Amino acid sequence: MVKKNRILLENKSTHSHRDLRMAHVFLSDDLIVQVLSLLTIKSLMRFKSVSKQWKTLISDPTFVKLHLHVEHQKNIWFRIWNPATKTISKRLRSSFGYLTPLRYTFCYDNSTTTYKVVVLFPTHQVKILNLRDNSWRTISSFPPFHHVTPSSRIVNQGVYLSGTVNWFAIQTDLSIDYYHHRKDITVDQFVIISLDLATETYMKLSPPRGVDEVPHFEPIITVLMDCLCFSHTLNLTHFVIWKMTEFGVEQSWTQFLKISYQNLQVDIRFGQYGELRFYQLIPLCLSENGHTLIFENSVSSQLILYDLRDNRAEVTCDNKINWFLAKNYVESVASIC
Asked: What is the C-alpha to C-alpha distance for residues 200 and 190, in angstroms, rounded to an integer?
């Protein structure tokens, strides 16, 4: 007879009513081992205190070997959902481990009329998933000595525009953190690396020439009005957005907006001594009439609606939504895969 353990699970679906119910679920020892083998080492150390049996299990050499194998060899699956048609793709095979920090970009290859997922690894290796046949390809890594800074892991996962994927990077052979090593960086090291999905080749683009000093916070690239945009803070008083009116032509950079943080109702200093904190203001999208620009405040999960006509901002706050993960969505009836 297979031994079973009883585990109490919280029914999270009733949180809105503050009615917490406990369900009794029985899991076999084998299943518990499989579940625990997927956890991080930090979590396993915590779960040692659950019971003597779990402490013994987690310390067992057989489990240690299993966990090491899973950590290095486990592959994951994911699906892609089309909100317009309410259809979901089949399970898509991944070729990397569960715990690997990655940057994903969902995109469309005009040359082959195929949807693709571009994945950038911490080692700067790039893999492309073709959703037509669910196949992965590894392409050439980033040009040498170009570093995508750690802080861009969230806000700069790759920007798709006209058959290309673009990342902000710094030309250096060092693995640096922008926020803590800003004084060691020069504007001349700034670069935008653009991957052409059709040719699978890279092109380097320079930022606007009007950027003559290293901003206190890492610059951000986004797409507004179907144009590549470069955004940065200026003297801790203004937020500036540049627009590349003709993609790939560096001479076409023009200053689109220069907005004071005061008008945006943003205070980038905090604390008793007014110290400076890491801060990212992320342009999400521009309304169809061109009157309202929507920003996300990475510090406090605020959504800022800025009216360009009267330079006024309306600040909303919803702690249940991670706005920094928001992407522009265009409805399509096309089959994903």
From this structure: 22
> Where along the chain do its domains lie?
4-73, 88-325
Q: Tokens 């679906």 — which residue?
A: 13
- What is the pTM assigned to this prediction? 0.72
Helices 52-59 & 29-36 angle (0-180, nearest 10) = 60
- Report the C-alpha gap between 25 and 272 in whole angstroms: 49
Helices (H) and strands (E) counted in the chain, each on its own, are 5, 25
Rounded-to-integer distance, Cα 337 and Cα 332, Å: 13
Determine the Cα–Cα distance for residues 288 and 93; give it in Å rounded to an integer. 37
φ, ψ dihedrals at 81, nearest 5°: -115, 135
Tally the C-alpha atoms within 13 A of residue 55's C-alpha that lie toward its C-beta. 5
Per-residue pLDDT 10s for the chain (337 aa) are 334 443 333 333 344 444 434 344 556 677 788 778 777 787 888 888 888 888 888 888 888 888 776 665 575 677 788 888 888 877 776 656 554 556 788 888 988 888 888 988 777 788 898 888 878 888 877 787 777 765 544 455 789 998 999 999 888 877 777 877 788 889 999 999 999 999 989 999 999 999 989 998 889 999 998 999 999 989 888 999 999 999 999 999 999 999 998 888 877 766 555 566 667 788 888 888 889 998 887 666 678 899 999 888 888 866 666 666 677 777 777 666 5
Residue with tokens 């492309």: 128
DSSP states of 206-224 as a string? ---TT--S--SS--EEEEE
The class of domain 88-325 in CATH terms is mainly beta
Distance between CA 316 and CA 314 in Å, rounded?
Answer: 7
